[in-house]
Amino acid sequence: MIEIAGLAKRFEVENPKKLSEQEKKDPRLKGRYFQSVRDVSFTCQSGEVLGLLGPNGAGKTTTLRMLSTALRPDSGSVLIDGQDILANPNVARKKIGFLSSSTGLYGRLTGRENISYFGELHGLSKSTINARIEEMADLLDMQSFLERRAENFSSGMKQKVSIARAVIHEPSLVVLDEPTTGLDIMATSTVMEFIQRLKDKGTPVIFSTHHLDEVQTLCDKVTVINQGETVFNDSLAAFSALSDGQMHKSFLKTLETESQEKSNVVNL
Ligand SMILES: Nc1ncnc2c1ncn2[C@@H]1O[C@H](COP(=O)(O)OP(=O)(O)OP(=O)(O)O)[C@@H](O)[C@H]1O
Fold first, then answer.
1. What pTM did the predictor assign?
2. In this structure, is residue 80 part of a structural domain?
């Protein structure tokens, strides 16, 4: 189980001229700092899939990077199975499988070598790595390109190898930043089936997405972030009930939530 409470992260603005027009008007901009994440809280238990939603720039990636220890929060806590991961980042790296939206593959290595390299970094034996790769090659439909160099992979091939690489060590929590962005329908459904399989095994999965159909199909819980703050945190059923099952309307409704009402909506 993972418990996140009161996460916050601000960045120093190096060049205010480079801010977008939207960022210049954003209430999170305070002098020389942009408060990307102001107050984010949610929990995800064994066997649950949590969908993290929010408009562009809401703070989803920043939040997921803090969970994965790639970024250190300014305040707040992250507990995995009761362990404080901010105090024990190495424990966290063993327990979490993180798919970042920006990490690339090594182009000169084959798909297999890219995955294997991460397995070695995690201290797995050659035989364990090979067995895991075989299993994931089937689940993620990678057999046809596993021995090819990654430099000419399509987006779908890259994403499948990146996912396999992120979970090679069988982490107890999987965090995926927009896992299906840019993928075609076949690759998307393979990735979704893979998430479903993790769920069936009892592994909690947290993933960010802009695709509400994925949330409807896979998620038990929904967390919506707007301008760096949690504005909704409850079950999929409660999210759906905000607007008689019309997911996009539910989403828009959560964004209308005033801060004063937040404490009523956020149900930790
Ligand atoms: N290293 C950084 N330095 C300065 N500002 C940053 C940094 N990282 C993120 N931000 C800003 O913080 C805000 C939140 O960014 P983040 O990438 O977390 O949003 P997001 O919800 O993942 O958006 P999207 O849906 O577009 O991927 C954005 O305005 C972004 O420009």
1. 0.91
2. yes
Atom of ligand 1 nearest to the CA of 36: 12
**If the chain, 268 residues long, is cut into consecutive pieces of 10 residues, what is the mean pLDDT of each piece?**
95 84 85 93 94 95 94 94 88 89 89 96 95 95 95 93 95 95 92 94 95 95 96 96 91 77 46
Residue 230 Cα to ligand 1 midpoint, Å, equals 15
- Give the domain range for residue 229: 2-105+173-265
Q: 145 lies in a domain?
A: no
CB distance 8 to 39 below 8 Å:
yes
How many A from CA of 99 to the centre of ligand 1? Answer: 17
User: Which runs of consecutive H residues, i.e. helices, occur in the chain?
Assistant: 21-25, 60-67, 89-95, 111-121, 126-139, 155-166, 185-200, 212-218, 236-241, 247-256, 259-265
User: Whose alpha carbon is nearest atom 29 of ligand 1?
Assistant: 57
